[in-house]
Amino acid sequence: MEEEGVNLEGSLPVPSVQELVRERQPDALPPRYVRDDVAPADHLPESSQGLPCIDLGKLTDPSSRSTELRNLHSACHQWGLFLLVNHQVSDEGMGVTQENVRGFFELPYHEKQKSAQRPGSLEGYGQAFVTSHEQKLDWNDMIFLKCLPSHARNLDLWPQNPPEFRIALKNYSEDLRKAAVAVVKYIGMALGINEGELELLMNSFREGRYEVRMNYYPQCPEPERAMGLSPHSDNSGITMLMECGDMPGLQVLSRDGRWVTVPPIPGSIVVNLGQIMEVYSNGTYRAPDHRAVVNKEREGVHSDLLLSQPVSSSWTFSTAPYCHWTRPALPNPFTL
């Protein structure tokens, strides 16, 4: 049960971590950022060689589709996360987006503050899910924006600097929506749902809400005691993540309890299944816990595009298309 008075739709204002590092250059973590409440960050992480890589080109090719569908099914079941290649999002589009995301965080603080979160809202520049003045904090700054459908955009919060930021984000979100629809099509095929349900699934991703969260992780004086992003699973349909650099930071929790680093492979997109897809598959596929760790020598930046909510439907835990007599429906239904 949620605590009385806690607003999960907004976030209390907190100091910018980037400005804290820039102005004070601390030798030790400020107390609110010391995360003894979670497992310490592993900076000698488990090998990432076992993480699956899915080739969208092989899924679209009838001659290789069946084999790649089996690989996709295994990836979603075992990990709930995979690297996607040949995703048809252009290198140029990804590069322009990376450049503008980094450019935003390089702006002077007063310029970034023009996009600051408003009271009672998560959208904008700040930090997410800060609900008390005693709460431990993540070592990051972020900007969270609604992208699609276009009428949901709050352009008052969309940065006007860098000058190409808005058009880059508009194009990138539309390109990733196309990739997301293709990915969920093949996820549905891997589950074996019928053509009618498959079309409903794809339409829900064509017409659903897409939001972007761009995270900046400054250099950290004690990275083994901090968290860039606390462990969590996403309450989205799927999340598509792009690293804006070559500094590994994302880690995923394996089924046997190991934190495994997700390598930043140039040109790839990380696809992470959210709780909605776990429900849709009736637990056959998983929404994995994941987190971001930080670094003492270099900053990290990444951009997540989340399908936060498919278009309204009547699917619940007990009526999702993949629920059938061989697998009892998951408890605690909620409407998708």
UniProtKB/TrEMBL annotation:
Keyword Oxidoreductase: yes
Transmembrane intervals: none
Molecular function terms, GO-annotated: metal ion binding; oxidoreductase activity
Biased composition (Basic and acidic residues): 33-45
Signal peptide: none
Domain Fe2OG dioxygenase: from-to ranges: 208-310
Presence of keyword NAD: no
Region (Disordered): 1-52
Keywords recorded for this protein, A-Z: Iron, Metal-binding, Oxidoreductase
InterPro entries named among the record's database cross-references: DIOX_N, IPNS-like_FE2OG_OXY, IPNS-like_sf, Oxoglu/Fe-dep_dioxygenase_dom, Plant_2OG-oxidoreductases
Entry similarity comment: Belongs to the iron/ascorbate-dependent oxidoreductase family.
Family matches, as PANTHER family: OXOGLUTARATE/IRON-DEPENDENT DIOXYGENASE
Name of the molecule in the record: Fe2OG dioxygenase domain-containing protein
Organism: Corymbia citriodora subsp. variegata
